[in-house]
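User: Can you predict the 3D structure for this chain?
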Amino acid sequence: MKRINLMVAAILASGMLTLNSCSDKTKDSAHETVEEAKNDMDENVAEAKEDIKEAGNEFEAKVKEDKESLKADIDEAISKLDKKIEDADAKMEKATDKEKLKWQERKKELNEEKAELQASWKNVQSETADKWDAFKTETKEKIAKAKADVRD
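Assistant: Here is the predicted structure, written as structure tokens:
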């Protein structure tokens, strides 16, 4: 874009010099050249704007797709955590006092992870595109941790 502007400026400058030092016929020719350069520049600027708009739309579509995928991953992890929490409740009913404390602690950890994932999803909605990649990586790490804990 800078090259185009520089090229147009050079053409305009040479056209101005030509207009000041040439005959009427040469001046008309130089004027036409300047007009053509302006038209070319306008077309190039319009094309550049369209390219930028298209790239922005593609990026927004990618972020939307990523958000939907991340939501599915979060929902799956929360569902597995809920199952583990239910399992912990069932085991506490039959456990001794010592084992109950262990299962209560485990249930507390699972609930904390679940809350973190739910908070992550709430943050997804307000996350801006420029910070999206970092946010997605952080949330995927939380999901991986939750899945690893579920396997325990």
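The chain has a mean pLDDT of 79. Residues 2-151 form one domain.
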